[in-house]
Amino acid sequence: MKKLINAPENYVTEMLEGLVACHPSLTICGDSQRVVRRSAENTPGKVGIVSGGGSGHLPLFTGYVGQGFIDACAIGNVFEGPAIDSCVDAINAADSGQGVLLLFGNYGGDRMNFEMASELVAMDDIVTATVLGNDDVASASPEEASKRRGVAGLIYAYKIAGAKAEQLATLEEVARVAQKAVDATRSIGIALAPCRLPSSTEPNFQIHDNEMEMGMGIHGEPGLWRSELKSADETVAEMLNLILADLPLAAGDRVSVLLNGLGATPLEELFILFRRANQLLADRGVEVVAPIVGNMATSMEMAGASLSILKLDDELEALLTAPGVCPFWRVG
Amino acid sequence: MKKLINAPENYVTEMLEGLVACHPSLTICGDSQRVVRRSAENTPGKVGIVSGGGSGHLPLFTGYVGQGFIDACAIGNVFEGPAIDSCVDAINAADSGQGVLLLFGNYGGDRMNFEMASELVAMDDIVTATVLGNDDVASASPEEASKRRGVAGLIYAYKIAGAKAEQLATLEEVARVAQKAVDATRSIGIALAPCRLPSSTEPNFQIHDNEMEMGMGIHGEPGLWRSELKSADETVAEMLNLILADLPLAAGDRVSVLLNGLGATPLEELFILFRRANQLLADRGVEVVAPIVGNMATSMEMAGASLSILKLDDELEALLTAPGVCPFWRVG
Amino acid sequence: MSLTAADLSLAVDHLASKLEELEPVLNSADSRLGDGDTGTMLARMGRGLADVDLESTDDLGAAFMLLTKATLASTGSSLGTLIGTAFMTFAKTTKGKSEIEWSEVFAMVDDAVVAMSARGKSAVGDKTILDSLNAIARSTESATDRDEFVTQARSGAQTALDELRDQPCQIGRARMYKEQSIGMDDPGMLAIALILK
Amino acid sequence: MSLTAADLSLAVDHLASKLEELEPVLNSADSRLGDGDTGTMLARMGRGLADVDLESTDDLGAAFMLLTKATLASTGSSLGTLIGTAFMTFAKTTKGKSEIEWSEVFAMVDDAVVAMSARGKSAVGDKTILDSLNAIARSTESATDRDEFVTQARSGAQTALDELRDQPCQIGRARMYKEQSIGMDDPGMLAIALILK
Ligand SMILES: Nc1ncnc2c1ncn2[C@@H]1O[C@H](COP(=O)(O)OP(=O)(O)O)[C@@H](O)[C@H]1O
Ligand SMILES: Nc1ncnc2c1ncn2[C@@H]1O[C@H](COP(=O)(O)OP(=O)(O)O)[C@@H](O)[C@H]1O
Ligand SMILES: [Mg+2]
Ligand SMILES: [Mg+2]
Ligand SMILES: [Mg+2]
Ligand SMILES: [Mg+2]
Questions:
Q1: Which atom of ligand 2 is nearest to the CA of D173?
Q2: CATH classification of B8-183 is 3.40.50.10490, yes or no?
Q3: Would you give the DSSP letter of residue C95?
């Protein structure tokens, strides 16, 4: 678990400097210098979309700042929510007078800080709406679905809300489709090996050489169960079953599939997993549209993968496949 | 070093199935089923470009099949060259009667097999030209530069040759710019942790917890030196110096920079490394154009990174920035 | 006896040095059920607080507001934001005052618990920092000076820790592992108990 | 005494079972200076060769051509392609013949070395499989039957291995570590020596 870094306290700052140096479409802003916004000027009449979250999950969250995606992102320390100031700065950066959608994962710190930030910007007459990503089926039972954490599936909500905002829809409408995307998305992750916080000398969890953990959280929080390492086909079948128990799919349904790597799992293995997920869905008569395979939401060098499924209707499919471009995802 | 796979002997086949299921722009073809070609029909009058290489390096090699990149790719077993049959099939797939450029890394097996394949297709009157990627400065001294191995920098040659072929240039011209791109590219890699072949139970090399290896090969072949783990800034400075010793750059020069991850190194760290490379080049008055940061050429779950620099002139820059699209790189 | 800006200054110094020392212990407590960052986050917050210039004002409200800002700038974690919320409540109550009686402090802690509970959507009994603060408020009702307050707070925090250890966590991801969380200390509660040791 | 398709069939069976057994040893020999796949690759090649139906023909040339194809289909590694090149040379020499004299085999091996050297852009002395084959050719010049041939080949392969061990590698990446490669066996040479053991 070696790291190619400098002083741990500069980890986030230096990472952001590298990110914007590589991607001129992104700019760091705000007093805190912990906000990334689009370099382009805000589109007049467009609802702004802001996200935020802890560092250590690239491309999530800030890699999805772009046209047809989110407009600004508040960036926290590794695995910590963004500080209130950054949330305020991000909202200000994204606002064009039509209101701002706050679209982020359902984590305590993030929620509290965006809540406080939205109270603060309300004093400047900025209207906000909030939609929380809560796709991780492992993080709470169906009865407590609203307490679930947001994981990789959040990027579907970015894409869909972003496409709606590009149509100059109202804040209410943008929030509606974002919520619809969240409600139609489920994810489940599997972890094989830990990561290490830059400030720490120890991995963030321990797992035996021959074990995997189903449903582990993206920060290494314990999952649903541990078992001995299974084959890719068995693993993905279990993951899919956990999702289908919560999001039933019937023949003729259309879905998008995101087979996401947590960081250290090679693309080869992600494709092997995707292949099986795709076959199993085809066996049920479910059609896969616009699938995504890659490292889209990571936990630094954690090994493992997550499977997300977005159940489509005509509206969601049109927004998912509408043009959009950010550094790590491009459509059209 | 756990793997999410099924039977090791199906690794390559299943990976390819997943790849083309996710990316409809790619199709598996050939008797061997070890060739990936563009799904689109060949452009009449266009020179074909074929590459090939061992598996285990995704997105390299086959992820760069696309418009304005390579047309077909022969796929070997993990870390083995593609078999002759696949090379022949790939050449046939890419040929539109204007000849085919064979553009691949300078590895013994790959070279011999493409050589034999080109002798075989010559009997069917298919004309080929060969350009070998040999960007890895660690793999041979400057005097023996032609013996150097090809690593991540090969993708610059793909992009540049691909853009030239799109202009319906002759085979001679396409080969000329490919060679020019190769000649203007240098790379150096650093490894922190090994990977494991799917068929093996052991990692492919051993390295201590506190060590890194400069110049290690993409298959884990020993590098130039081992030292204790250094900071990101020190590491990238050393890497840059090794490249500059071989490819001198002066104020006013323009280059593209590829900061590539070997598999398990998080994007955060790649951006921290890139930030410093960019600063050091700026300090010398060198301008960085169209940089790339990401996992573009990997060794499965190996931890580490490589730095590639392409020195530009007007022709190379125009071709590098010309439109092109494949599953893992898009310009314009 | 009253609490002044000088007491606050002393308390902050103690807090910062304790948090530096407790970093590994608290990280490892958090890593059992959470993400293992409680210690690092609190140590960073402690450094942020230590940097605040409390000499510049006699107004306790202004001093607490400086501490609030330092806390909220240093982190965006749940715990940090809740601590910032507590400081903000203290700032409101003490606005314009240069001292308050130690006997009034427990009521301020009660107010903080109410504000934190609203912000955190959590309640006393969920096995969080709220239980520690609530227990501190109860145990310090009779305190009239600093020494009494600290002694009573210490025992309150320890009692809460001991009493809730065998309860399941009700908040955050740890909620999913009710069984597993039984017998383990909540890292936030542990932090408060150890700071007062 | 002459070499027939039946001898070839026996030799292939021996080769395949030996290669299966040697997989870990050869991988680890390769991992010291190369990429650690020599054993796995050769074992796969062995399985490909074992699948060839040599009963179907008496023509040694046709039999060697089947072996060539099986080799080249099973791998694209340097070593595999060089072995395929050797089989192809044997196929050319023995085309249309159902037997050849054991005393002629060394000359066939010499031809193979020439073809492999051209394909591999390498030479005897570079510390590769070429050195083993060259040594085998030299040591078997006087062999007149299978037993003599095998015994002499075994000693030739072993002598080459012993003589070149302390030479530096001149081919592939190992070339860069001339110092390091001194004292280590080339995995291809080791494979030949162990197969003949
Ligand atoms: N909603 C909440 N209400 C009350 N206390 C909470 C809440 N969320 C977290 N805490 C407290 O914060 C501690 C965890 O802090 P920390 O590790 O910094 O949070 P994070 O979950 O953001 O990593 C818990 O031990 C608990 O005492
Ligand atoms: N150009 C060459 N000429 C002669 N022998 C070679 C050449 N390249 C490789 N070899 C032989 O092949 C062996 C390596 O085989 P293998 O591990 O399969 O190759 P790769 O380098 O493709 O992984 C070496 O030990 C050497 O004997
Ligand atoms: Mg945290
Ligand atoms: Mg190899
Ligand atoms: Mg925590
Ligand atoms: Mg090898």
A1: 21
A2: no
A3: T
Ranges of each domain in chain C: 2-195
A106-139: pLDDT as tens digits: 999 999 999 999 999 998 999 999 999 999 999 9
CATH topology of domain D2-195: 1.25.40
Tokens of A53: 């979250």
Query: What is the spatial distance between Cα B77 and Cα B72, in angstroms, rounded to a whole number?
Result: 17
Best CA proximity match to A226, nearest among A195, A192, A264, A266: A192
* CA pair distance C152, A306, nearest whole angstrom: 48
Percent of chain C having pLDDT more than 70?
97
Return the closest-CA partner of residue B93 out of B22, B167, B37: B37
- DSSP state, residue B321: T
D36 lines ligand 2 (CB under 6 A): no
Chain A residue nearest residue C40, CA to CA: A199
Question: DSSP letter at B212?
Answer: E
For domain A185-319, is the CATH number 3.30.1180.20?
A: yes
Chain B interface, best mutation among A268, A279, A296, by max B CB count within 10 A: A268
Determine whether the shortest distance from the Cβ of B44 to ligand 2 is under 6 A: no
Q: Where are the alpha helices (DSSP H) in C75-145?
A: 78-94, 105-120, 129-139
Tens of pLDDT along D59-79?
A: 999 999 999 999 999 999 999
CA A280-A283-A288 angle, to 5 degrees, is 70
Closest of D79, D88, D63 to residue D11, by C-alpha: D63
pLDDT of B206 above 80 = yes
Is the CB of A214 inside 8 Å of chain B's CB atoms? no
Q: Give pLDDT tens digits for C78-129.
A: 999 999 999 999 999 999 999 999 999 999 999 999 999 999 999 999 999 9
Residues D132 and D127: their CA atoms lie apart, in Å, by 9
Decide the pairing of beta strands C99-101 and C2-4.
Answer: antiparallel
Q: Collect all residues of chain B within an 8 Å Cβ-Cβ radius of residue D80.
A: 80, 109
Closest among B58, B8, B11, B13 to B32, alpha carbons compared = B13
Planar angle of CA D115, B75, B218, nearest 5 degrees = 85
d(CA A152, CA A214): 15
| C-alpha span between D153 and D192 (Å, rounded) | 10
- Tokens 């997943």 belong to residue: B18
CA max distance for chain A: 56
The total of other beta-carbon atoms located within 10 Å of residue D98's CB is 15
Helices D5-33 + D60-74 axis angle, to 10: 30
**What is the per-residue pLDDT for D34?**
78
Q: Which of B38, B46, B186, B219 is catalytic?
A: B219
What are the extents of the domains in chain A?
Answer: 8-183, 185-319
Give me the pLDDT at residue C31, please.
83
D66 pocket-lining for ligand 2 (C-beta < 6 Å)? no
The DSSP line for A87-148 is: HHHHHHHH-SSS-EEEEEE--HHHHHHHHHHHHHHHTTT--EEEEEE--BGGGS-GGGGGGP
State the distance from the centre of ligand 6 to the C-alpha of B298, rounded, in angstroms.
Answer: 18
The span from the CA of C186 to the CA of C191, in Å, is 9
Q: In the annotation, is B219 catalytic?
A: yes
pTM assigned to the model: 0.95
Residues of D in contact with B110 (CB under 8 A): 76
What atom in ligand 2 is closest to the CA of residue D127?
Answer: 27
D34 CA → ligand 6 middle, Å:
5
Q: Report d(CA D151, CA D140) in Å as an integer.
A: 9
Question: Contact at 8 Å (CB) between B129 and B99?
Answer: yes
Q: Does B272 contact A21 at a Cβ distance shorter than 8 Å? A: no
Contact C9, C64 (CB under 8 A): no
Compute the distance from residue D43 Cα to the ligand 4 centre, in Å: 13
B23 assigned to active site: no
Give the three-class secondary structure for A70.
Answer: strand
